[in-house]
Design brief:
Blueprint (H helix, E strand, L loop, with lengths): L1 H35 L6 E4 L20 H7 L5 E4 L2 E3 L3 E3 L5 E6 L5 E4 L9 E6 L2 E5 L2 E3 L7 E6 L6
Parallel strand pairs: 1-2, 2-5, 3-6, 4-7, 5-8, 6-9, 7-10
Length: about 160
């Protein structure tokens, strides 16, 4: 009888030590998983002709005057909100795996105008390698006699 109690006590001690070890490992794994998840995404603003752009462009008052400037500083998960206006620029972003959302405030008044760019050169309003979501923008170019492209998506080998 004494041996059975001793064996049961040893068994309970071993099980509780195993549970404590399992908990330590589980909490360690959960801690490292929590560290690897991005904390939050940022909404960044672009406003055509803004006289006071100020990094990191997180309000309409400090909004960038260029889409390219904001795309260059964005992290994965960020959203770029483009205000009313005409933007005459090419936007190049080559960050495979980065998730971005570029959203215009109104499809009729948020215009990417390529019509003044050289006519017979290959030009792209957006040249991207990102995972990109775009909404509410008009891309304007010259009809019938241009090598302009609205959105060009680079596909990298091995992806």
């Amino acid at each position: 009888m004494m041996n059975a109690k001793l064996i049961a006590s040893i068994h309970r001690t071993a099980i509780s030590q195993w549970i404590v070890q399992t908990r330590k490992i589980l909490f360690s794994v959960l801690f490292f998983l929590a560290l690897s998840v991005p904390g939050y995404s940022t909404i960044r603003y672009v406003k055509s002709g803004n006289p006071t752009p100020s990094y990191p462009y997180t309000t309409w008052t400090t909004a960038s005057d260029s889409i390219q400037k904001v795309v260059d500083i964005c992290q994965s998960g960020d959203t770029i909100l483009i205000g009313t206006g005409i933007y005459r620029e090419e936007v190049i972003s080559e960050n495979p795996g980065r998730d971005l959302a570029i959203i215009g405030v109104d499809i009729d008044s948020c215009v990417i105008d390529m019509s003044l760019l050289p006519q017979f050169e290959y030009r792209h309003a957006f040249l991207v390698s990102d995972n990109l979501s775009m909404e509410n923008m008009t891309i304007k170019t010259i009809m019938y006699s241009t090598n302009h492209t609205g959105i060009w998506v680079n596909v990298l080998s091995g992806m």
